[in-house]
Amino acid sequence: MAAKAFHKSSLSIRARKSLPTAGSAAGARPEHLEIRIWLRLEQPSSRIESALQRRIVGTFGISLARFDLLAQIERAGGVLTMSDASRRMMVTNGAITGLVDRLVDEGFVVREAHPTDRRTILIRLTEPGRARFLAMAREHENWTVALLSGLDLAAKERLLASLGALKRQLDSMESSP
Question: In what order do the strands lie in the sheet with 79-81?
């Protein structure tokens, strides 16, 4: 969910409503299947994100964006450069700076100078910060499981496989010239 906290669709609700409907444009595919898929992906993702945001703020007083940054640092072994955090979360360096400022103030992380590159700043989880993050992560996982509990195992597996295929296809498009 990390990057999702920052990106929102570039297509407004008004623009979505103005999309062509089945058969409205001469020669257009009657189903507009690709547009419908994109919109169908976006709505559940946004709803899950909103539910998780409400719960994490209400329970732990931390934004989903700060939680996502903590998750990235934990996945990286407890330390990341500011630039790596920016890349992983797909946000600007400025956005990372703001998140790190808050996490430093809250005692989750510390900034450290890179041992060999004076231009690089490391973000390191503190021991108390890591313990607090892991407690939040357990609860976050429980909430996510609950949000998806209405789907049976086979449906979850099909959805995961389909989304994996879509990701691979998009990755291959990004890597081609």
Answer: 79-81, 121-125, 109-113
**Which residues have C-beta within 8 Å of that of residue 154, sequence separation ≥ 6?**
none
Q: Which CATH architecture has domain 37-147?
A: Orthogonal Bundle (1.10)
| pLDDT for res 32 | 84
Two tokens, residue 36: 């419908």
**CB proximity list for 79: less than 8 A, separation 6 or greater:** 73, 112, 122, 123, 124, 125
Question: With b meaning 16 or more CB within 10 Å and e meaning fewer, what string describes 90-123?
Answer: ebeeebbeebbeebeeeebbeeeeeeeeeeebbb
Query: Quick one: CA torsion of 85, 67, 114, 112, rounded to 10 degrees?
Result: 150
Q: What is the rounded distance in angstroms from the CA atom of residue 177 to the CA atom of residue 168?
A: 16
CA torsion sign for 129, 131, 136, 137 is positive
8 A C-beta contact, residue 130 and residue 74: yes
Quick check: pTM over 0.70?
yes
- Encoded amino acid at 34, one letter: E
Instruction: Note the pLDDT tens digit of each residue in 65-123.
Output: 999 999 999 999 999 999 999 999 999 999 999 999 999 999 999 999 998 988 899 99
